[in-house]
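re: ur question from earlier - yeah i can do the single chain one, its not a big deal. heres the input i used so u can compare w yours
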Amino acid sequence: MNIPSELKYTKDHEWVRIEGDIATVGITDFAQGELGDIVYVEVETVDETLDQEEVFGTVEAVKTVSDLFLPLSGEIVEFNDSLEDEPEKVNSDPYGEGWMVKIKFNDEGELESLLSAADYKDLIGG
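and the output i got, formated as tokens:
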């Protein structure tokens, strides 16, 4: 199970990479493994400002559809358009080419609510 130590995580199995005031978000290796083959990623919230834990999109796998929850309040400034044609990137490279959105976050205090790699590993029983 791949849980990069430089990332932050959520209890909803999303990862967060912080670069200045931009947070890149995707789902974890554990989550993509649980979902199975991902066939569609839908995000219709680009340019919207949402609160932490609001639904910003969905991931559709062969077996199920799962909501995606925003890990930090802020404006969704970019969607990974390549997922429209190649949603399987979420399965093959969840921490790289399978990223989903970039958020311009506005409350650094919310970073405290994110999990470290060790805490996330404990959450999933790793």
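The chain is about 15% helix and 35% strand. not sure if urs matches, ping me
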